[in-house]
Design a protein that fits this description.
The protein has 402 residues and is of the alpha+beta class. It is built from 16 helices and twelve strands. Strand 3 and strand 4 form a beta hairpin. Its cofactor is a divalent metal cation. Belongs to the HARBI1 family.
Length: 402
């Protein structure tokens, strides 16, 4: 007669045996992933390249020449070798996957159907490619050695370089001795697990902050990414590596000495400009309080707002071109930081290489001769998104309650 203990032992042995068989039968890859080259978006990409160049540019936010140039730059960092088990995903597809992720803001679960690549593999590809973009484009546009979360993009390196930045601001925006416009942008993320209110900001969302210095041509000179969203813009700026470099007495950035302005015998320092959220210092200008404006102060505020508007427009174009920024990013903050840095480098790359198509006249704010400002397309797009979000949040759609 079989005892209860023996029965239990036999049941456990049988269960283990069945589990082992199931493991051996389990597929290492779904069948439709194996047929990737029948379904992938690369066929569409090649067709657009050959027949519809404008649609191709919209597909990847760049012309094919600039795509190929970028691909050759990062290929050594992202190319993989084929194995006996499977064929590696080509470097060209890895780059186009990453660009489509940045351009569309698709979730990885949705992106897999366009690429025929598993979400976990997509995550790895996007992170590796973003890292390659950062490292390679950083070498093209080198800056001083910086550390932590701060990255230099096309920051000037000599006194003459800084003076050229200042001349651009004076020529385009009528603000002398300005060497950069500063602002912060909240990059909204899904709440990380076990993070409490650490990333919770005043907009009642979760975010990390992109703090940037922008030149007169809407290009990022220095950026800092990763501060938690609950910090103020002023507090975030003070904690950035580039602000520490600007504040040091050693002048490691080679900022020019104060100089006389036109029709003045007084010497004025070279300054950054920002809005009311930042602290006034000898090398950082902010607007006068609106409650105590004289005519002279009103003119100063007007001039400063023109110079400062470039950073707003740089952020706007970044979000307008890369839709990853118009919704919560469902990645860990460290991974999100890498995605943001890569997008900033791509923004500069396209500003430099393909400016007339990347930034078109109607995209940015235009000041008319009578000083009225026509808002750029990116602002109108943001307003539409806000309106649609409100409709969704209030459960209203075309007047029908759902």
């Amino acid at each position: 007669m079989v005892s209860n203990a023996d029965k239990a032992f036999l049941a456990i042995t049988l269960a283990v045996s069945i589990t082992e068989k199931e493991k051996r039968k389990r597929r290492w890859c779904k069948e439709w992933y194996k047929m990737r080259y029948r379904f992938t978006h690369e066929h569409l990409q090649r067709t657009l390249q050959a027949t519809e160049p404008d649609d191709y540019k919209n597909f990847l936010r760049m012309d094919n020449d600039y795509f190929e140039t970028l691909l050759e730059l990062i290929r050594p960092n992202i190319e993989k070798q084929d194995t006996n088990m499977r064929q590696a995903i080509p470097a060209s597809q890895r780059l186009s996957i990453t660009l489509r992720y940045l351009v569309t803001g698709m979730d990885l679960e949705d992106l897999k159907f366009m690429c025929a690549v598993a979400p976990r593999t997509l995550d790895l590809i996007i992170q590796e490619t973003c890292e390659a973009i950062i490292q390679k484009l950083k070498r093209i546009y080198p800056g001083p050695a910086v550390m932590c979360f701060c990255f230099s993009l096309i920051v000037p390196r000599t006194i003459e370089d800084w003076k050229k930045v200042a001349k651009d601001f004076e020529r385009r925006w009528n603000f002398p001795n300005c060497i950069g416009a500063v602002d912060g942008k909240h990059i909204e993320i899904e709440k990380p697990s076990n993070s409490g209110s650490y990333y919770f900001n005043y907009k009642k969302t979760f975010s990390i902050v992109l703090m940037a210095i922008v030149n007169a041509n809407y290009q990022f000179m220095m950026v800092d990414v990763g501060a938690n969203g609950r910090m103020s813009d002023g507090g975030t700026l003070k904690n950035t590596k580039f602000w520490q470099l600007f504040s040091e007495s050693e002048n490691k950035l080679n900022i020019p000495e104060p100089c006389e302005l036109l029709e003045s015998d007084k010497k004025f320092p070279f300054v950054l400009v920002g809005d009311e959220a930042f602290q006034l210092t000898p090398n950082f200008m902010k607007p006068y309080n609106k409650a105590v404006l004289t005519d002279e102060r009103r003119i100063f505020n007007y001039r400063l707002s023109r110079a400062r508007r470039v950073v707003e427009n740089a952020f706007g174009i970044l979000s307008w071109r890369f839709k990853i920024f118009i919704k919560d990013i469902g990645l860990h903050p460290d991974k999100t930081r890498k995605v943001v840095l890569a997008a900033c480098h791509l923004h500069n790359y396209l500003c430099e290489k393909n400016k007339n198509k990347y930034i078109q006249p109607g995209d940015i704010d235009i000041e008319e001769p009578n000083t009225t400002v026509t808002k750029g397309a990116w602002r109108q797009g943001r307003q539409l998104l806000t309106w649609l979000t409100w409709l969704w949040d209030t459960n209203i759609y075309f007047g029908i309650s759902v």
